[in-house]
Specification:
It is a single chain. By secondary structure, this protein is an alpha+beta fold. 26% of the residues lie in helices and 21% in strands. It is built from 1 helix and 4 strands, in the order E-E-H-E-E. Strand 3 (66-69) and strand 4 (72-75) form a beta hairpin. 1% of the residues are buried.
Length: 80
Amino acid sequence: MADFLPKIHYCDSLNAIVVMDYYPDFQETNHVTREENIILAMGKCISRLITRITGIHVTDIHDDNVRDKNGNAVIIDWGY
């Protein structure tokens, strides 16, 4: 899961100071909107987390397979 966490060089929790690498914001790429790129990236993160916890490889998490359940996200397509 380290791929999804920032590299932290310095942390002072008393003064709320964190120094980490710079990570640019998502951009539009190849006719895919910025928002779609964010959703795809989060899907990769969630897929890897599910695999780590359950051992089940889920690779189809994207905006069409995440729905609203009382204000929370629910993954509806588990046809891994």
